[in-house]
Amino acid sequence: MAHFMNKKEDMVVEAIDGVVAASGKKLLRLDGYPHIKVVTRKDWDRSKVALVSGGGSGHEPAHAGFVGRGMLTAAVCGDIFASPSVDAVLAGILAVTGPSGCLLIVKNYTGDRLNFGLAAERARAFGLKVEMVIVDDDIALPDLPQARGIAGTLFVHKIAGALAERGEDLETIANAARQVIAGTKSIGMSLSTCSVPGSPKEDRIPAGMVELGLGIHGEAGVEQISFEDAAAAMSAVVDKLDSVMGEERYVALLNNLGGTSVLEMNVLLYELNQSKIGKRIEYIVGPASLMTSLDMRGFSISVYPASNEEIQLLAQSTPVAAWPGLEEIGPIETVGLPDGLTPIAPLPSEHEATRRFLIDCCQVLIDAEDDLNALDAKSGDGDTGSTLAGAARALIGAMDRLPLADHTQLYRAIGLELSQTMGGSSGVLLAIFFAATGDGASSGRPAREAFQAGLDRMQEIGGARLGDRTMVDALLPALNALDDGFEAAAKAARDGANHTASMLQAKAGRATYVSAKQLEGHVDPGAEAVARLFEHLSKSDLPI
Q: Do 492 and 482 form a contact (C-beta atoms < 8 A)?
């Protein structure tokens, strides 16, 4: 798998230099490349307790991204997924530790424990006061003698960092850190393992499965389970957390493991809030990328029953950009639509043949969802099928509200429904089409002329013409042939749709941004949808 890098061996040092250069002159690094990779605060004067953490790279923004006032004083970075050396850790300690001492915050991995532990001993031999705490928040493998340290480490960074900034002594800060560690519980889930630069990706998690409890270096989790949806995934994670939680008030940290979209993370936040532990979670950190595993498509949740003082420490401001802040979770508030946007509902009426006909047409679009998405992926963003299928499902759901016995009002009602439920330019254009078709029908025009009036209005506003590689290339020929019957209209629509595959330049729609090479040989998805509908109509007994 390709990565945005130059040489694998230079990747970490170049990334660190990028962070330091863009820090607003708030960060420094020690001049020890390539073996000593340490980032420190520029404004540090050694008058307070220093906080040093670190570990292998690949977990960004951890750890260098959390160096700053109110959090870490220094971060010691190893190579990707490799613990930093004893000398690197010792360099970090010596660079920032003054008379008040230093607290090392270490995740519970053998290499980190050994290298940070030996560095602490050597620092003490220099006469420095050094304490070390080990974070072991992962609950995925309860029978493991020593649990792993994962994203719950951020609770320790923030609370200990706020105490250090306040001027508390080393013993107070170390004891507070140990209390946070004792109460923090975390677990992760992912749809994929991570891609380590320079190494083949391990495709351990098959399609349709999700792994629960995997580590931040891609280590295997406790089990793989069938993936259904976000709700089921969150339920599996919550079941594990619930088994180790009490009834207290909790803070949750929702962590992106690196490759999950912001949209998905917000869905997961919604599901966490709706889950059986949701009422116990009063505060949230994230969702954000905090302790990642390169590009892993997953998330982790850490929970901690924070006291009032700890809530204040977590909420204390810090200029560290990677820290998303602490927010109280509240009810979802709504306000009514502005005047003029509340739709006037048509008077419903029943007509069984029209109901069956509309549901059949909607089902054609639902069945074509994957095919149309695949076509759209060649020329757009791959969502035409989902957009049309979503509108079709919404229309089926609205069937009892439609004036099925009055086709003039039905066209307008369909246009209104599409304007509310169908996103993108397609939704607007089809809403215009059906609204104008209703206007045409109300003036006494026959069905074909009413539909032609709808198309004329859609072209007038949307700007698409025959030959522009849009749905018009199938719809206009079909309407022109409609007087000869639906078989003729279906053939015209199919011929028009197929012809779009040879059009090497789109003149309307998102495909205008796509090269001719990318478009060649691929039917426009909107035209394909029109062709499939007319082909269905040619085989149906029509009530209209």
A: no
CB 201: neighbour CB atoms within 10 A? 13
In the block, which residue shows the tokens 């250069």?
Answer: 21
Task: Judge whether 63 counts as a catalytic residue.
Answer: no
CB neighbours of residue 336 within 10 Å: 7
Helices then strands, counting H and E runs in the chain, come out as: 18, 13
DSSP annotation of 223 reads E
User: Where are the alpha helices (H) located in 398-524, listed in sequence order?
Assistant: 407-421, 424-442, 447-462, 472-481, 486-499, 516-519
Question: Residue 417 contacts by C-beta under 8 Å, 6 or more apart in sequence?
Answer: 394, 395, 398, 402
Nearest one of 218, 215, 222, 211 to 189, comparing CA atoms? 211
Which of 428, 424, 356, 417 has its CA nearest to residue 392?
417
How wide is the angle at C-alpha 291 spanned by C-alphas 288 and 297, nearest 5°?
70
Taking the alpha carbons of 456, 458, 460, 465 in that order, is the dihedral positive or negative? Answer: negative
Residue 496, amino acid: G
Give residue for tokens 């969702």.
287
Q: State pLDDT tens for residues 306-348.
A: 999 999 999 999 999 999 999 999 999 999 888 777 667 788 9
Angle at 152 (CA atoms; ends 149, 156), nearest 5 degrees: 100
Residue 472's nearest CA partner among 517, 506, 515, 441 is 506
User: What tokens were used for 114?
Assistant: 């050994």
Single-letter residue type at 334: T
Sheet holding 281-288, edge to edge: 223-226, 209-212, 185-190, 298-304, 250-256, 281-288, 326-328
SS3 content of the chain, % helix, strand, coil (to 5): 45, 15, 40
How far apart, in whole angstroms, are the C-alpha atoms of residue 46 and residue 333? 47
Instruction: Choose, from 63, 157, 217, 499, the residue flagged as catalytic.
Output: 217
Q: Which residue has the tokens 């630069």?
A: 197
Return the SS3 of 116.
Answer: helix
53-to-342, 431, 465 alpha-carbon distances in Å: 55, 57, 62
Candidates 75, 110, 91; CA nearest to 35 is 91
**Cβ-contact 39, 64 below 8 angstroms:** yes
Positions of the chain with pLDDT lower than 50, given as ranges: 511, 513-514, 543-544
CB 212 within 8 A of CB 95: no
**Which residues make Cβ contacts (< 8 Å) with residue 156, sequence separation at least 6?**
105, 133, 135, 177, 180, 181, 184
CB 281 within 8 A of CB 329: yes
Amino acid identity of 110? T
How far apart (Å, rounded) are the C-alpha atoms in residues 210 and 226? 6
Q: What is the pLDDT of residues 204-226, one digit of tens each?
A: 899 999 999 988 998 888 899 99
